[in-house]
Design a protein that fits this description.
The chain is built from 22 helices and 13 strands. It has about 625 residues and is of the alpha+beta class. It has a five-stranded antiparallel sheet, with helices on both faces. A hairpin with a 7-residue loop joins strand 5 and strand 6. Helix 2 crosses helix 5 and helix 3 runs antiparallel to helix 4. The longest helix has about 55 residues. It starts with a helix and ends in a 6-residue tail after the last helix.
Length: about 625
Amino acid sequence: MGFLTLFLMSNPMVFVEGIVFDTRTILIPISGVFFGPIITIIASIIAIAYRVNLGGIGMYVGISTIILSALIGIIWRYMFRRYKFKNKYLEYYLLGFTSNALTLVLMLFLPDSIYIISRIFPIYLLVFPVVTMLTGVVIKQQQFRIQASNLEKAQSLLLQSSIDSSHNVEIYAVDKTYKYLTFNIFHKKQIKQYFNVDIEVGLNVLSLLKESNRRFRIKSCFDSALKGEIIHDVIYTSLPGNKIIEEHFTPLQRGNDILGVTVVIRDITEQRLHEDSIMRLSYYDSLTTLPNRRFFQERIVEVHDNQYCPVSIITCDINGLKLFNDALGHKMGDLVLVKVAGILTKHLLPNGTVSRIGGDEFIYILPNTDYDTALKMMEKVDNEFDNHLFNGLKLSVSYGIATKLEGDHIDDVLKHSEEQMHKSKLFEKASHRSEFIKSILNTLREKNPREKEHSTRVATICTEIGKYLGMKKHDLNLLEAIASLHDIGKIAIDEAILNKPGKLTPIEWEAIKKHPEIGYRIISTAPEYAEIAEDILSHHEHFNGQGYPRGLSGEDIPIRARIVSIADAYDAMRSRRTYKEPMTHEQAILEIKRCSGTQFDPNLVNIFVDLIDNGVLSI
């Protein structure tokens, strides 16, 4: 800019003899507006140096015009960045007019200034502003072109970088003759892998496809996109892993003209598998893998059509699942559900479905199946349950059958099936619970053979203490029942803990201490045992309140529990364990006496000792 200014100043235009001028008042303001203060100041310094070198009486006015022009350009640059001029022609015309008008003002300081100004003002006020305007507009348009070009290059680079950065999406574009316009690196690698071809721009895509069906399908998609359609296709391939491919064919447009087709190919195998797993979770029970309530509700609507008649509905409910959960824990209860689901599925008729619709509820839907056929199927299910023990415990289900005939409403049939199941459950409930408790007791004794003998000895001691206290036969029978069932909660304790040869760890001991609560939950479900449930819960309470599980003390502990506590402790001390030798009778009696008033009821301890001393109890 400095050297351009020198060129202009060293080649002035002659207006008339003796009057010359140059276009620095156009160039320097334009420089300030477009190129900023640094470039403008440097150019102005160069121009000022040249003007000083020329000297003469007009030197100071010449320097002033350079400085003024530079200031106007720089001020204009920042002023109109903040206050945008919509009309660039007007903006640059005003710039030229302002710069040159002020230059004329400075010329008033020249000798014969009026004469000079009168001769050159048409040039400075009419021609130079227009030239400034045209120069500014040309430079501005050139800036726009450069910026647009740079932006286009940056966008192209960004686009190419973006499509090349994808490691699982193929992207390419073809022209109207199916030849490559561009492609990303991943697509190139995939073509190399499957076709062993190094593709390049200009290669016909269809030439790669030797299989006629595939070539026809791809060409059809190209042709549809070239007509302006957007094609989306999902392909189940025979590629390794049975990949699922999603393809998008989109018209490549410039304005209203379609230049070709952009293709995006994505492997959606994992996505589809994930979606399928979510869909399966919404229709299938995750525990048993059977269809769930949602599946059942949609299926029951389908079979309402008369073409499926007769439709048999069988509602099933597991007997005593809560007992399983209480006795063996919820993990074991879940295994029971899985086992029951397996048995129900095993005997399912080919055209039917069985769904788990609730915690312990299952429903068969048997299209084109009459009542007798459904009943025969359930008889096979019953036989399977009768012949099957789960961890030594018997499983069973209550069920109700109802059959839809033409004209019946499926909801009424379903309701009738449920009512029949509830009636069946009422008859089986009490007997099943009693049988279940007996099964638990037998299983416990099989796991720990000492339990039966221990219970018999405890029952003998309890009965004699009860007789001494004047208990009626009913209470004596209850004492005997408690003796048999007081450790029933140990069914839920790990066998390795029950039979551990060494000393129990604190965690194992805490597990053992849970057996009164578990026993209580099991026993309280059977009406005939409900009266002794509280005694079983309390048989490890201590008279001084330091026992478990509730920390009861004194006479707040049921009398039968206090009696069982003494008998249970005495027999435990007299019995051999894997981790200790048995105490002698005398040692056990001394221990009972020592704990009188703390662990045991002192009155009952005295009675127990008297019975032994008087020979009533021979133990």
